[in-house]
Specification:
By secondary structure, the protein is α+β, with helices and mostly antiparallel strands. About 60% of the residues lie in helices and about 5% in strands. The longest helix is centred in the first third of the chain and has 70 residues, at about 45-115. The protein is rod-shaped.
């Protein structure tokens, strides 16, 4: 058996010969069968049998011949179909090869050429075109689409590269603007530079839009800074006038306390304390506005007077207990700032503790300076509140926009701490509340006075013991300074403030009364003009000048002064006893002002006499 190209059998040898002899054998067998049938038939029917056999053989011969002719035609048709099938298979194989060649060779080559920048026709010329027209048309369509896609891809890549470059430049400009340009601009504007000067030195971004934005931002910031500076300057000027007026009012009140009797003395003390609180508020706002305190001192102030001055400025002065035995003094230029800082912290401790609990202040000296500890028994601060408080006292919260309207004290403490180098730290208090530890560095402390000068300054008047005794017998009074009176000495002599005439009564704590120009008078300074008019030193208040005039008059007529003082003392002694007895009655609370004046009239005159006796070596005057 032979096989064709596709593996099919092509035919069996001898099959046509067998197919052509088979009809002849069939006809021969039919003739023999007819002859045998005719010979075996009876004589009478032998003729008919022979005739039937002949007719049947003829019919069989016709059928055989017809079948042989049909088979020949079928074989010829089958051969033709087989030839067509072979041709179709050959053509299909050729087309498959062309498709494979086009997919694996032609199209990759064309795509590579197009990617390299060749045109569609140039890419087609570099390959062998398919033999089939349909394949050639398909190849043309594919090449056109590939060329279009490559063009769009190249354009997108170029646009992406350009966009990436622009984005990189804009990012660099924005980073430069945010990290260098704007901080420098803000710093320069806050330093007082004008917008044009800042714009002349600014590093401009490359992007035009960012340049316009930068210029607009700089000019808007400059306008805002000018407005803020103008508002701050106006506020500072207005507050300075209020400060001057409050200082003048305090001086007038002190002069009125020296001039009027005990009937209005208590009312004057309350006005004195209210004015001191007003001065604290105005100083607080002035410091936040960039201004200065309303007072300044030209000589060191002892720590005891600093503490009493701080206590005398807060509303809850009666709840503050001082425990101090130090004799250190704060230099004059920092005394007011330290006093204000302590007053703010004491006021904060008193406001955030129960109204029936006391605030204790401890002072001790160390090799690193003077340590002041303020402890209250209120609720302990949360972590967030403690963090905000530490930021405020460290000077980090300098933005006034972030401050709450009623929470300004810690911000003032932070500014004063940064200005004078004071360390302020918070910690849990042993009394259950919060403790504040203030460290005054050595550069803020004055040198200790010599023993001779200490004796000269501490020399009390002859009437001081009787004054202290009379005040000790009096009950608690709502007057400034009582919190630092006898009740503050319950901790013992070593832990509490020493008793002094100036601290025994409900008067303001002992501190200098005058401003920076109110120190000791120059030895050669003229006291009067050639025409006899008194000369007032710069910065001295009218009340202080009047008091100095009274002292000089008293020095010229000492007999009149002592006689008038003895007469006043005799008149006010019984009144003080009667008032002390009547003050215990609830029905006469409306007479508290007169009661206070009666109780402390003798003390007030003794203090005035002591001030006259020590005019050449003056004591530190009272705190404002």
């Amino acid at each position: 058996m032979t096989l064709s190209a596709d593996g099919r059998p092509s035919g069996i040898a001898g099959t046509p010969r067998t197919a052509s002899s088979l009809p002849l054998l069939l006809l021969g067998a039919a003739a023999v069968a007819g002859a045998v049938a005719a010979g075996l038939a009876p004589s009478a029917a032998r003729g008919w049998v022979a005739a039937v056999a002949v007719v049947g053989w003829l019919l069989l011969a016709v059928v055989v011949w017809t079948g042989r002719a049909g088979a020949a035609r079928l074989r010829a048709h089958a051969a033709q179909l087989e030839s067509q099938l072979t041709g179709a298979q050959t053509q299909l194989g050729a087309r498959g090869a062309e498709v494979i060649h086009m997919a694996q060779v032609t199209l990759p080559t064309v795509a590579r050429s197009l990617r390299d920048g060749a045109g569609p026709q140039d890419a087609l010329h570099q390959t062998r075109p398919p033999a089939e027209p349909a394949y050639r048309e398909l190849l043309n369509v594919c090449v056109t689409l590939l060329a279009d896609a490559e063009g769009r891809a190249a354009g997108a890549a170029a646009a992406q590269h350009h966009t990436a470059g622009d984005l990189t430049r804009v990012t660099d400009d924005v980073r430069l603007l945010a990290t260098e340009t704007l901080p420098a601009v803000v710093g320069a504007l806050r330093g007082g530079a004008s917008a044009d000067r800042v714009l002349a030195n600014v590093t401009w971004p490359a992007d035009p839009t960012l340049r316009d934005l930068t210029e607009a931002a700089v000019r808007e910031l400059a306008l805002s800074e000018r407005r803020a500076a103008a508002a701050q300057t106006a506020s500072a000027k207005a507050l300075s006038r209020v400060q001057a007026k409050s200082v003048s009012m305090l001086a007038d009140l002190r002069e009125m306390q020296d001039r009027h009797g005990e009937d209005v003395f208590g009312d004057l003390l309350r006005l004195d304390h209210s004015t001191s609180q007003l001065g604290l508020m105005t100083d607080r706002l002035a410091l936040l506005m960039g201004g200065r305190s309303s007072r300044a001192w030209n000589k060191p102030i002892v720590m005891e007077s600093i503490l009493r001055g701080a206590v005398g400025r807060i509303a809850a002065y009666q709840r503050v207990r001082l425990h101090s035995s130090t004799k250190a003094a704060v230099v004059g230029f920092a005394a007011e700032g330290v006093m204000h800082l302590l007053a703010e912290l004491m006021d904060n401790a008193a406001n955030f503790s129960p109204p029936t609990d006391e605030v204790h202040v401890y002072v001790e000296e160390s090799r690193t300076g003077v340590v002041v500890t303020i402890e209250d028994s209120g609720l302990r601060m949360s972590e967030a509140a403690l963090r905000r408080a530490k930021e405020s006292v460290s000077g980090q919260a300098a933005d006034l926009a972030l401050l709450q309207g009623t929470r300004l004290g810690l911000a003032v403490v932070g500014r004063l701490a940064v200005k004078y180098g004071v360390s302020v730290n918070f910690r849990p208090s042993s009394r259950g509340g919060t403790g504040v530890v203030i460290l005054l560095p050595p550069q803020l402390l004055a040198q200790q006075p010599q023993p001779d000068s200490a004796r000269t300054v501490a020399a009390p008047s002859a009437e001081a013991p009787s004054i202290e005794a009379s005040v000790t017998e009096a009950p608690a009074l709502p007057a400034p300074g009582q919190a630092v009176g006898p009740e503050a000495t319950e901790a013992g002599p070593s832990a509490s403030l020493p008793s002094a005439p100036a601290s025994a009564g409900p008067v303001s704590p002992v501190l200098p009364e005058q401003g920076p120009a109110d120190g000791p008078e120059a030895p050669g300074a003229p006291q009067a003009t050639p025409g006899g008019l008194p000369v007032r030193r710069p910065g001295r208040t009218m009340a202080a000048a009047h008091a100095a005039t009274e002292r000089r008059t008293a020095e010229r007529h000492p007999d009149n002064r002592h006689s008038s003082e003895r007469q006043d003392a005799q008149q006010t002694g019984p009144d003080a006893e009667r008032t002390g007895a009547s003050s215990a009655s609830p029905d006469e609370r409306h007479r508290s002002g007169q009661s206070i004046g009666d109780r402390f009239g003798a003390f007030h005159r003794a203090r005035r006499a002591a001030a006259d006796d020590t005019a050449e070596n003056p004591q530190p005057p009272r705190a404002e």
